[in-house]
Amino acid sequence: MGILEVKGVSKHFGGLLALDDVNLSIQQNTVHAIIGPNGAGKSTLLNCFIGKLLPDTGTVMFNNKSLLGLAPYQINQAGISRVFQTPEVFSELSILENVMIPAFAHRDGAFHLSPFKSLARETSIREQAEKILQDVGLIDERHHTASAMSRGNKRRLEMAMCLVQQPKLLLLDEPTAGMSRSDTNNTIDLLKTINEAHNITFVVIEHDMHVVFSLADRISVLSQGHVIVEDYPDKIKGHPEVQEAYLGTAESE
Amino acid sequence: MLKTPHTSDRTLMIVFTILVLAGPLILAPVGAGYPDLMQRFVIYGIFAIGFNILFGLTGYLSFGHAAFLGVGSYSAIWMLKLLSVNIVPAIIFSVVVSGLFALLIGYISLRRSGIYFSILTLAFAQMSYNLAYSVLTPITNGETGLQLELDDPRILDGASESGQVASPSLFGFEMSDTAVVPFLGMDLQFNVGFYVSALILIGMFYLSLRIFRSPFGMMLRAIKSNQTRLNYTGFNSRPYALTAFVISGMYAGLAGALLVCMDPLAGAERMQWTASGEVVLMTIMGGAGTLIGPVLGAGIIKYFENIFSRINESVVEGWFSALPEGVTDVLVAVVSPFLGSGWHISLGLIFMLVVIFLPGGLVEGAGRLMNLVVRLWQSRKTGASQSDTGPADGVTPAEEVSHRSVNTRES
User: Fold this and answer.
1) Mind telling me which residue stretches traverse the membrane in this protein (chain B) (predicted)?
2) How far from the centroid of its chain's Cα atoms is residue B384's Cα?
């Protein structure tokens, strides 16, 4: 039994069948990549995990609890964090505050009022946040506002925001999209260290095969809303159906 | 902000307290040292501080906060009529009632954000205004409004017997009592009502400071920055915004109650949309999201309203009377539309200038001014120290000058 079990998920947008009977089983402490050509339904599938979309049919179970119909904050509280395709941070707040906010969410739950407690006295939260910022290499800039950061650093910050919550499952939507080669490699290293140091299951949606094959333990290939293959990375590389999905076959010309 | 909050906040609090308590002394030279106006500075300061907790922190722009001001006023005057002219029950009751009212309106309005939220709050405020003006006449006395009367029951302190309407007081100290002290040719007016409101203002300012510096305040700033992200971070953001809305509604109710305690009269016009707009102007003009800005903005707008609106054509003529007659006429014709009853035009111009050149409000302006002064001072100091040591180090005068100009630019 996997940590995330997806069974028979389908989703229509008008006449378009975006997801067609998708089945996935994501095992604990693995890096599971979901790849596929443009329009294969990768983002739609991810949005079904995080409460942004409700599938027409099927079930999404996380640790034997259904995620369907839950609000985004409830899904986060259940232990699923998400890294966005374009880094989403609190631009006007300092880097340290950006990490303290999810730390509060993890400690105090979805709604907790302490309007007269001083932020400066929350030393344990601040220490937690500072430790994570140390890990991702942003500790020296922690008092700067997040708006001026480079895209690569925003990604690091986002990772820190997720890690401070010690999630069970981390969803990464194209974590290296729009990054330079060196930023991409840094991100891969960062993800590897995190995966080894913390017991976090990763689900990565990615275009970049370099990223996929350096990270993934297991790969599912999605094509036209359907999982066509699920296997180990070295088996995927030469798989005829995958090549067909990405490149088309000689016969179909 | 996290670096040294304690010392700088303490300084801010001390300076603020001194400035507020020294109000009669500071305001008398600029012609604003009379009780009625000083009370209004302080009360609208409270109103704006509360509005800023919602607008400045969460970014939700309410266009209906005058409704809470009005509800506070009506609740307070009813307590003064029914219970006692002591202002304590009046204030407590109106804060509670306006809080409940804010909970209802906020719960509905916060289902939407941005312009739709603003429109919803505006609609609610106009509804409240019309209810107060006509439908709820038995409670609000319609367009005449409510005031204290001889036959008020006043269960706790007994109805007036002396044939004179009692005025609101705090355990025997009447709000309207004023001690006039001559000082350097001015009459300083120390008024009970002003000091009661001023102490409440200081308390409310401290409360807002605590909220700004709390985890709750940080969540509110996160709502303004990126509410969607906050939801994905595991927070249910709506109750946070609702709490901020209710707190700011209670501040408005408190301000409304104080208005009634100073001048026991409550009318529907206090809930008009222009009154809601005024607190928006105050907050933006002073600096939304800053601690001191709203108080500053409230002071400036109320000062304008009272001082500029009193300058009529004959006063303006007096200013230019020394000039030749033709010139005087032209100057009076040019200047007078901006003063007297046209003071709104000057206020509008100033507001435009602030929004265009100082989006952070007057607080940003003051900050820039401070930076400039500090920079000038530092460059003068480094310049001076260099010219002292320069020749001894064997630097030629030409080099020294170039050094100094570089330093000026850098620092």
Assistant:
1) 12-34, 41-63, 83-108, 115-136, 192-212, 239-260, 280-304, 345-363
2) 43
Dihedral (Cα; A49, A54, A57, A61), 10-degree rounding? 30
**Phi/psi at A24 (5° precision):** -145, 145
Q: Kindly report the CATH number that applies to the domain delimited by B5-310.
A: 1.10.3470
- Which chain B residues have a beta carbon less than 8 Å from that of A92? 221, 224-225
Judging by beta carbons within 10 Å of its beta carbon (0-12, 13-18, 19+), is residue B365 exposed, middle or buried? middle
Q: Does A130 touch chain B (CB under 8 A)?
A: no
User: A4-247 in CATH: which number?
Assistant: 3.40.50.300
Tokens of B290: 């800053």
Question: CA–CA separation, A154 vs A131, rounded Å?
Answer: 17
- Chain B: closest CA distance from residue A239 (Å): 37
3-state secondary structure of A16: strand
* Cβ–Cβ under 8 Å, residues A4 and A169: yes
Within chain B, which residue ranges are assigned CATH 1.10.3470?
5-310
* Beta strand B173-174 pairing with B169-170: antiparallel
Q: Where are the domains of chain A?
A: 4-247
Q: Round to whole Å and give the CA distance between A143 and A141.
A: 6
Strand A80-83 vs strand A169-173: parallel, antiparallel, or unpaired? Answer: parallel
Identify the CA nearest to A20 among candidates A57, A46, A74: A57
Whole-number Å distance between alpha carbons of A196 and A202: 11
- Number of C-beta neighbours around residue A120 at 10 A: 16
User: Which residue of B53, B235, B243, B245 to mutate against A (max A Cβ within 10 Å)?
Assistant: B235
DSSP character at residue B336 = G
Determine the distance in angstroms separating the CA of A104 from the nearest CA of chain B, rounded to an integer: 8
A 10 A CB-CB count for B378 gives 13
Q: Is A11 helix (H, G, I), strand (E, B) or coil?
A: strand
DSSP A145: B
Place of tokens 């880094």: A87
CB contact under 8 A, B224 and A92: yes
| Alpha-helical regions (H) of chain A | 42-49, 72-77, 95-108, 123-136, 151-163, 181-197, 209-215, 233-237, 240-247
Cβ neighbours of A121 in B, within 8 Å:
none
Helix (H) / strand (E) containing B329: helix B325-335
DSSP string, B117-131: HHHHHHHHHHHHHHI
The pLDDT profile of chain B, 411 residues, written as one tens digit per residue, is 444 456 788 999 999 999 999 988 888 888 778 888 999 999 999 999 999 999 999 999 999 999 999 999 999 999 988 888 889 999 999 999 999 999 999 999 999 988 999 999 999 999 999 999 988 888 888 888 888 887 777 777 776 666 677 788 888 788 888 888 888 778 888 888 999 999 999 999 999 999 999 999 999 999 999 999 999 999 999 999 999 999 999 999 999 999 999 998 888 888 988 889 999 999 999 999 999 999 999 998 998 888 888 777 777 777 777 778 788 888 888 887 778 777 888 888 888 888 898 888 889 888 899 999 999 998 887 766 555 444 444 433 443 333 333 333 333
Distance CA A45, CA A194 (A): 24
Q: Which two tokens stand for residue B119?
A: 């429109």
Residue B217: enclosing H or E segment and its boundaries? helix B215-232
Report yes or no: B76 and B286 within 8 Å, Cβ to Cβ: no
Q: State both tokens at A25.
A: 């089983």
Residue B254: alpha-carbon gap to chain centroid: 13
**Among residues B170, B202, B195, B166, which one has the least CA distance to residue B35?**
B195
